[in-house]
Amino acid sequence: MPSVSSAQDRAPLTHRAIFVIALPVMIANISTPLIGVVDTAVVGQIPDPAYIGAVAVGSLIFSFAFWAFGFLRMGTTGLTAQAFGARENDEVSASLGRALLIALAAGTALIALQWPIRETAFALLGGSEQVESLARGYFDIRIWAAPATLANYALLGWFIGLGRTDIGLVLQLVLNLTNIALDVLFVLGFGWDVRGVAFGTVLAEWSAAGIGLMIAIRHLRRFGGLWSLERLLAVDRLRRTMSVNGDIMIRSLALIFVFVWFMAQGAKQGDVILAANAVLMHLISISAFFLDGLAFSAEALIGRSVGAAHRAGLVAAARMTTLWAGAVALFLSLVIGTLGAEFIDLLTVDAAARSAARAYLPWAIGMPLLGVWAFQLDGIFIGATRTAEMRNAMLISLSIFLIAWWLFLPLGNHGLWIALYINYLARIGTLYYHYPALVRSVPDGR
Fold this sequence. Notes:
85% helix, globular, mainly alpha
């Protein structure tokens, strides 16, 4: 029983408390998908869909490579929120220290292993010779952002766990707006094509990591100052950290594999289909980043409730954040349905890519209404650090996706989109199955 919990921890949850956390994330996330949009738009001014395809393939490789370490954001949020809810100040500080150590080690390893990573990725993805050549140039530059990118995951996760998404907003805006400005300068100003996109990303990631670390050091004073090596290396805490992070890593690899497979199968249908799917994925990413605001709010609030042993608070956080997320998802689907065609025209001037993207636009319109439930369940389970269930659910969902892809293969790209929808349904069903047990595992604490 957490004797250090306060009455404030058990105060009724308000809609304002949810949006104090969610709104900064939503505002910051407006700029996050704009990176991909600007990347696509600037190279889309070249009348050849191979440039869009190259950026899509290159970005996808790093989504796989970096988001394998997505636990540095998700796991840090859950562990920090629980320590914060239990008023364990030393552990709040140590959660960030351990995450940054892992980020430095993993980022350095990715740079050292860049050759096998690159060759394996392009052997798996395929695509035309021109797309692969351009994407290789992108890869060779962007890989040098690895330590900074992973450190930014850790910093963002820590601030979200503290409920300080306003600081996360500042860091994301620094990262994303710097990235956008440099992309435009290097590609349209200097004519560096996809290499300019990669170089802009590298500079932006390192800038944001430096600023984020300076802000974090100032906040650590609230929790006992800089890190104690003894606390960082405490065996029981390290074991729990590695268990949570290992589960999330496996889950993240399975999730990213779904999207890698999706893009790879689109690439096999030609550069036009690859470009069309890439454009529509930007629409889906925009909606997902908006919905992340509510999911991140669920992570922080549920983590605090678990740390404070407050079951009623967990249930209230899950219900209220999901209610708002559903409303936002409906709005986003209406916006995509109304403005989707104009968005497609903005991202590419290629007539064939525009036509293909319009043909598959209905799939993007429905995605927020389906994805919102998966995102919210992810947030609930991350906050509660019930990561074994997340790992198992995603592995089952991946298997179902591959079976669905094979069954609907005769339908071409429509079949590919059907399989993606089925994957989301599987994620929802497998996680919701474990939700009642999650609730029962948290004491009432009355």
